[in-house]
Design a protein that fits this description.
By secondary structure, the chain is α/β, with parallel strands linked by helices. Helices cover 47% and strands 23% of the residues. It has 9 helices and 9 strands. A 7-stranded mixed β-sheet has the order 5-4-3-6-7-9-8, with helices on both faces. The longest helix has 21 residues, at 171-191.
Amino acid sequence: MSEQVSFGYEQVSPEEKTERVGAVFSSVAKKYDVMNDAMSAGMHRLWKDKFVRRVKPQPGEQILDMAGGTGDIAFRMAAKGAQITVSDINQDMLDVGIERAMERGLDSLVWSRQNAEELSFPSRFFDAYTIAFGIRNVTRIDQALAEAYRVLKHGGRFYCLEFSTTEWPGFKEVYDFYSHQLVPRIGQAIAGDAESYRYLIESIRRFPTMPEFETMIRQAGFVNTRVEPILGGLVAIHSGWKI
């Protein structure tokens, strides 16, 4: 039987997942940031601020922001003086980010279309690798983690911000109802696309648990791994070092 991977609650071929995820983000690109505000009541901004504080970008550092699309993380890190390469597999998302950067007068960012599983960058090039709300959409997560490890310098750091599963009793049930029943309706009202947001919610449910994902990060070669749950694990910051 040919290899199958999850696309939300469906099992599809790796090639089909890559194609369908691409279609999802092309569909939602122009409304992506507006939807993030609507779905999280603006909290995603606080999560991203906290994430960048953990990364601690320094002036002159080379940082790869993978799945960085619309630039939210990159803009925050560039403000600290780091040299940021923003990469995404989806050109429509990158185009939105480039337009936003131009509006802000930011011309120091490098924009590069890349597949997280097969980066074109040289080995041991970046001081840090960040990925926010993107790794669950990668077809082969283990390959993306291996590539993150490869392109980092010795002493480089890996940081990932991703949805997980909240462990707070009561809140989990409320969030499950909200995400499955209301988020697709919000997606239809704002972005004109309920199905893409239904997939994005399903992809969260299929993502490994916090301990499982930490194990995957260690298996890629990273050490001193850490998980920092937010809202009981609704969102988590994962980190590790290449020694």
